[in-house]
């Protein structure tokens, strides 16, 4: 399933087996992938069909359903995949989940992640991104905010009407609520599109009305 956001540089993709909301951000023929779930071959076909050249991979956190294809795509295209160092120890932790979905297990030694720097950066020409730490679901969770495009990729920190789990290794309920409050306090415009790790995108206005956790 594919969902086009208002800004056509952003494409939401749910690769089979349907589970995680992945994102392609592109300018011209260059692109960056966020949270690449699924089979690497499907991603190769998707990039070829769109005639896109992969420049980098960013992930919101280290759980297997958000990094499944990162090592394999890194090896194929020779690009970095960025992960917060707080989640390095989670790489490979969830291989049982990948096996359950019939996906290859991850060996961190085959294509190690590049440490993510918490900063503002231009990921593609004209596409500037702010990286925001959002620990709680995992120790190294992050959100990616694109101010000009009014888009934020928030991973599993926050869902349409709920929050991410905090009972897995490294989870912390208090930190998660503080991370959500920090996002709330950015005072994003009502029409900012929120891309969750699972489920369809919402907006800041929608979350204020429907998500009881999205508050100061």
Description:
A hairpin with a 4-residue loop joins strand 10 and strand 11. The protein has one domain: Metallo-beta-lactamase, Chain A (4-Layer Sandwich). With 216 residues, the protein is α/β, with parallel strands linked by helices. It is globular. The strands form 2 sheets. It has a 7-stranded mixed sheet. Strands 8-9-10-11-12-13 form a 6-stranded mixed sheet. It has helices spanning 40-50, 64-67, 70-77, 95-100, 173-184, 204-210; strands spanning 2-4, 10-13, 22-27, 30-34, 53-58, 81-83, 114-115, 120-124, 127-133, 142-146, 151-155, 193-196, 202-203.
Overall radius of gyration: 16 Å
Mean pLDDT: 93
Spatial gap, N to C terminus: 34 Å
Q: State the CATH superfamily name.
A: Ribonuclease Z/Hydroxyacylglutathione hydrolase-like
The percent range for helix content is 10-25%
Strand percent estimate: 25-35%
Given helix and strand content, the structural type is alpha/beta
Give the CATH topology. Metallo-beta-lactamase, Chain A
The topology string of helices and strands comes to EEEEHEHHEHEEEEEHEEH
Number of strands: 13
Largest sheet: 7 strands, mixed
Query: How does the overall form come out from the CA principal axes?
Result: globular
Query: Could you list the spans in which at least 5 consecutive residues all have pLDDT below 50?
Result: 1-7
- Biggest sheet strand order reads 1-2-3-4-5-6-7
Supply the number of helical segments: 6
Q: Under the CATH scheme, which class?
A: Alpha Beta
The count of domains is 1
The CATH architecture category equals: 4-Layer Sandwich
């Amino acid at each position: 399933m594919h969902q086009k956001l208002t800004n056509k540089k952003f494409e939401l993709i749910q690769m089979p087996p349907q589970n995680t909301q992945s994102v392609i951000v592109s300018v011209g023929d260059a692109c960056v992938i966020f949270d690449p779930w699924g089979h690497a071959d499907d991603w190769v076909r998707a990039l070829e069909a769109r005639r896109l050249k992969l420049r980098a991979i960013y992930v919101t956190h280290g759980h297997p359903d958000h990094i499944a294809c990162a090592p394999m795509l890194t090896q194929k295209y020779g690009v970095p995949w960025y992960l917060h160092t707080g989640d390095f120890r989670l790489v490979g932790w969830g291989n049982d989940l990948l096996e359950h979905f019939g996906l290859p297990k991850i060996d961190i030694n085959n294509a190690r992640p590049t440490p993510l720097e918490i900063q503002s950066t231009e990921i593609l020409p004209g596409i500037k991104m702010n990286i925001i730490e959002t620990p709680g679901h995992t120790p190294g969770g992050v959100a990616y905010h694109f101010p000009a495009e009014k888009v934020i990729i928030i991973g599993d920190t926050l869902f349409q009407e709920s929050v991410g789990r905090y009972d897995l290794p490294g989870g912390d309920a208090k930190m998660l609520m503080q991370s959500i409050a920090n996002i709330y306090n950015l005072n994003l415009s009502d029409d900012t599109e929120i891309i969750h790790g699972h489920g369809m995108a919402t907006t800041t206005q929608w979350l204020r009305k429907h998500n009881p956790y999205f508050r100061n």
